[in-house]
Design goal:
Blueprint (H helix, E strand, L loop, with lengths): L7 H14 L5 E6 L5 H16 L2 E5 L4 H12 L7 E3 L11 E4 L12 E6 L2 H4 L3 H8 L5 E6 L3 H6 L4 E4 L1 H6 L7 E7 L22 H24 L13 H10 L4 E5 L3 H13 L4 E4 L8 H8 L4 E4 L12 E6 L6 H8 L13 E7 L3 H13 L3 H4 L11 E4 L28 H7 L7 E4 L1 H9 L10 H8 L5 H7 L1 H9 L3 H4 L12 H8 L5 H7 L1 H10 L6 H4 L11 H8 L5 H7 L1 H9 L3 H4 L7
Parallel strand pairs: 1-6, 1-7, 2-4, 2-5, 3-4, 5-6, 8-13, 9-11, 9-12, 10-11, 12-13
Antiparallel strand pairs: 14-15
Helix pairs in contact: 1-2, 8-10, 12-13, 17-19, 18-19, 22-23, 25-27, 26-27
Length: 612
């Protein structure tokens, strides 16, 4: 096993300090997967900040005493050139240069006088009222946010982001490439059971029988993966069929499956999981908010011989668990951020360098969609996804392997009626996904979550789909008939053909709107280019051209032109990945569309939604 190379850390520290020294910057986000050493890098930033500024530093950790102690213990590992202390009920105030605290410590205490505030696990609680109250009490303080998933800050566009992705960490030998497996079960959930955050709705329940059956499937797959690992093969074969009862208990006893975390949707489900393992003679601990307020069981799991830790929301927190070898995700979530945070728990290098395993449990009906979700999650290891993902992902293209067999490619076409998604190909690993981006395009296809969803339920291709009620629902997404026509042409055409257009567009602006200069300036501040203004606000753009208002905004005053030969095949693919179909590509980036036609990339970019 190669020795990890941490030389990248000094560069990231320097970049963070550069942003903190910049008077126009309020702070900086340091983003990377677990194992990169964000805590150590933040301490290095603190050390140099204290030398230069002589101002107090506050480190806010997530609302778990274990995480506060974890950060404080890192400070104690070696001699520092600054004093530091932990704020708690026994030590409510401190004169130390660096103070580590939970945010609710300042609920009824003064929080003034800090020059730098470090927010650990910032993706979880930067926007929480308790944290924001501390920040408001220190308006001049610089901010250093530590996170493994920077998507909230990418969406905010407020702070510069210094990042080092999982694929880069893998190249440095800092993390390992886990096995990633998808397990199908008979659970009854459909997309109707998911909320806007792509998590199961709170009311979705698992019976004890469903929990047991799901765990039987997941553990059988884990045994397959472990057996494949022992035999030195890359992809697990079906060494074990689905086991249950005494056979599964016996198989688990024969193989050392290592410390395992099981992620659940609700606390009642989590308690059923603990009961399941105890019935098989396997030690298990439960860490949920009702039973383990200070996450003491997480610390116990880390230090003793307990095999299984069962959690609900705490899987996404940055607990230091190097001995963790497996994760079974029973939460059913389709939220890429949550899954990526959980996956990152098993990319950290193990104590013996063992490969680790991440098992995602899904249902038969949702398997194809979950496959795309997991492919996108793995793609977040790459800079082009990690550094641009702002939380919106369902129309974001991801490259997947084409299926080979009688059912044809992932198009639904073939001699047999069998779904092309029925037998899913193995999910890509962190190493695979990087190679897929530059590999022979005939072996792979780009797709999106929404494309696969439409393909499976037939909403784009089945005749008679666009009923009056569906057209009304679709039309509510648009403010003008023009935007409706451009954004959902099939719904628009059906409405017009059936004489429903007036009904479905009743809420839309019908007459040509007169725009003022003030309205133009207000909207112009929100767009990044002339193209964006023209596509999203065609009427306003026309008024701006007519009245010569574009010269008032520097970024819109000149038309950006690209040099001849700018559009290479790779640039076309990158541009096309921003859109769900070639119609949107043609509307929003005509030059890239024309180049795609020239390079004969249309079928590759969007094989089933080509616009003729």
């Amino acid at each position: 096993m190669n020795k990890p190379d941490y030389s990248f850390q000094s560069k990231l520290v320097s970049q963070c300090l550069e942003h903190l020294r910049n008077h126009s910057s309020g702070g900086v986000v340091l983003a990377s997967a677990p194992g990169a050493g964000k805590t150590e890098m933040s301490i290095e930033v603190i050390e140099r900040w204290v030398e230069e500024n002589k101002k107090k530093v506050l480190v806010l950790t997530h609302g778990q005493t274990v995480l506060r102690s974890q950060y404080f213990n890192r400070l104690q590992r070696k001699e520092r050139n600054f004093s530091f202390g932990m704020l708690n009920s026994k030590n409510p105030t401190s004169e130390d240069s660096v103070q580590v605290s939970l945010p609710h410590h300042f609920t009824d205490r003064d929080a003034h006088g800090y020059g730098l505030i470090v927010v650990d696990e910032a993706h979880h609680f930067f926007s929480a009222p308790m944290v924001q109250n501390v920040l408001k009490a220190n308006p001049e303080a610089k901010l250093l946010m530590l996170t493994g998933t920077p998507s909230p800050f990418i969406a905010m566009k407020t702070f510069p982001i210094v990042s080092f992705t999982a694929s880069q960490l893998l190249e440095q030998g800092v993390i390992t490439d886990p096995f990633i497996e998808l397990v199908k079960t008979k659970l009854p959930f459909t997309l109707k059971n998911f909320n806007q955050q792509d998590n199961l709705v709170e009311g979705a329940e698992f019976t004890s029988k469903q929990v047991n059956s799901s765990l039987d499937s997941a553990l059988s797959q884990l045994l397959n993966t472990l057996t494949a690992r022992l035999k030195g093969t890359r992809n697990p074969k079906r060494y074990f069929k689905k086991l249950s009862g005494k056979k599964l208990k016996s198989a688990l006893a024969q193989l050392d499956f290592g410390k395992t975390m099981v992620i659940c949707h609700r606390q009642d489900q989590a308690r059923d999981v603990v009961a399941y393992f105890k019935a098989k003679g396997i030690s298990a601990l439960l860490s949920v908010s009702d039973d383990d307020t200070d996450s003491a069981n997480v610390e116990l799991f880390r230090t003793d011989s307990t095999k299984v830790l069962v959690v609900v929301n705490r899987a996404t927190l940055g607990f230091d668990l190097p001995s963790l070898r497996n994760i079974i995700d029973l939460s059913m979530t389709h939220n890429p951020d949550r899954i990526f945070q959980a996956l990152c728990r098993v990319v950290r290098r193990g104590l013996n360098g063992d490969k680790k395993t991440f098992i995602k449990v899904t249902t038969d009906g949702l398997a194809a969609l979950t496959y795309v979700v997991m492919s996108f999650v793995v793609a977040l290891s790459l800079p082009e996804y990690y550094e641009t993902f702002d939380g919106r992902w369902k129309d974001r293209k991801v490259r997947i392997k084409k299926s080979s067999g009688p059912s044809g490619e992932h198009t639904g076409k073939g001699k047999k009626s069998k779904s092309p998604w029925e037998d899913l190909l193995p999910l890509p690993s962190l190493i695979d996904i990087k190679g897929m981006m530059s590999a022979d395009s005939s072996l792979y296809a780009y797709t999106t979550f929404n494309e696969v969803r439409a393909r499976l339920d037939g909403t784009r291709y089945s005749p008679g789909h666009w009923t009056l009620e569906r057209c009304k629902e679709e039309a509510l997404k648009y403010g003008t008939i023009t935007s409706f026509q451009r954004g959902s042409s099939s719904a628009y055409k059906s409405s017009r053909k059936n004489g429903w257009l007036e009904v479905v567009s009743a809420h839309m602006t019908k007459k040509r709107q007169k725009y003022s200069k003030e309205q133009f300036l207000q909207i112009a501040s929100k767009v990044d280019s002339r193209r964006e203004l023209k596509v999203n606000y065609p009427g306003l753009f026309a008024s701006a051209v007519k009245h010569n208002w574009l010269i008032l905004v520097p970024k819109l005053s000149t038309k950006q032109t690209r040099p001849a030969g700018y559009w290479s095949e790779e640039r076309v693919r990158e541009e096309a990945s921003k859109y769900s179909n070639t119609h949107q590509l043609r509307i929003n980036s005509r030059s890239a569309y024309d180049a795609a036609v020239k390079f004969k990339l249309m079928e590759e970019l969007c094989p089933n939604k080509r616009v003729k």
